[in-house]
Amino acid sequence: MLFQRSLTRPALTGALTGLLLCASVPSALSAPAPYVPPRGTAYMGMGVLAHDGSTSDAGDGNTDDSSTVPRATQTEGVDVSSYQGNVAWSTLWSGGVRWAYTKATEGTSYRNPSFTQQYNGPYSTGMIRGAYHFATPDSSGGAAQADYFVGHGGGWSKDGKTLPGALDIEWNPYGDDCYGKSKSAMVSWIRDFLNRYKSRTGRYAVIYTATNWWTECTGNYGGFAANNPLWIAHYSSSAGTLPAGWKTYTMWQYTSTGNTVGDRDRFNGSTDRLKVLSTG
């Protein structure tokens, strides 16, 4: 009643209209929050299409043009993670696939629930297999993540059928591309992971990355090339420009749309050379 006495009818109508507009405008203008996948769901190459696409060679003299490498000297492989579920390994073998990497861990809290089938399956089929770790440098230290990886499937044995573990270091699917780290801090994190993996297994880990990410987030650091094999991600007709230090790649993820599992890779050598890598 006090509200009605203090306002005329036109004023009251205007006030109510204003209140309604104030109540409705924020919801009409608000934009949906960007989708952020839950932790643990990342997989090898998740950010390559979004950030890298099918870029052309930069022509800076550090290019490995695999279109000039005979396919007969390369060995087909695949990489898998939980989103593929149970994999038809016999089908892949029949299609010429001879090696596979399976995601084992992420950070220090995630383990692939499909790891057993995806890791033992290729081994039983006759393939040479390995495990990879999806790095999240914003969640814990490099040495801690290497320990977690080795403790949950990322180890190595000299049985001639197990490849050294791989560090998947690429665009952050959960936030800042470089996980909030400076270039020097990222290099230190990677070094901590690699050193701990070497001390735990006796093997140098494979580094999986994309050149654009490596340049953005490490400053194109070349200090790991002497010991750590490069697994380059580049969805094109050639592997493209490689990160500093590496003159050739050991593995190349060349597509995410291959038969059966999607992610397809090539080892830059024959199966005999692949066995050499597995035995160390």
From TrEMBL:
Stretches with biased composition (Polar residues): 64-77
Gene Ontology process terms (BP): carbohydrate catabolic process; cell wall macromolecule catabolic process; defense response to bacterium; killing of cells of another organism; peptidoglycan catabolic process
Entries under InterPro entries matching the protein: GH, Glyco_hydro_25, Glyco_hydro_fam25_subgr
One Pfam family of this chain: Glyco_hydro_25
Source organism, top-level taxon: Bacteria
Reactions listed under catalytic activity: Hydrolysis of (1->4)-beta-linkages between N-acetylmuramic acid and N-acetyl-D-glucosamine residues in a peptidoglycan and between N-acetyl-D-glucosamine residues in chitodextrins
Signal sequence, start to end: 1-30
GO MF, any single term: lysozyme activity
Top-rank EC class of the record's enzyme: hydrolase
UniProt-annotated stretches for the region Disordered: 53-77
Matching PROSITE patterns: GLYCOSYL_HYDROL_F25_2
Gene Ontology CC annotation, any one: extracellular region
Transmembrane segments: none
E.C. designation(s): 3.2.1.17
Localization per Swiss-Prot or TrEMBL: Secreted
Sorted UniProt keywords: Antimicrobial, Bacteriolytic enzyme, Disulfide bond, Glycosidase, Hydrolase, Secreted, Signal
Biological role: This enzyme has both lysozyme (acetylmuramidase) and diacetylmuramidase activities.
Family to which the UniProt record says this protein belongs: Belongs to the glycosyl hydrolase 25 family.
Record-given protein name: lysozyme
Organism of this sequence: Streptomyces monashensis
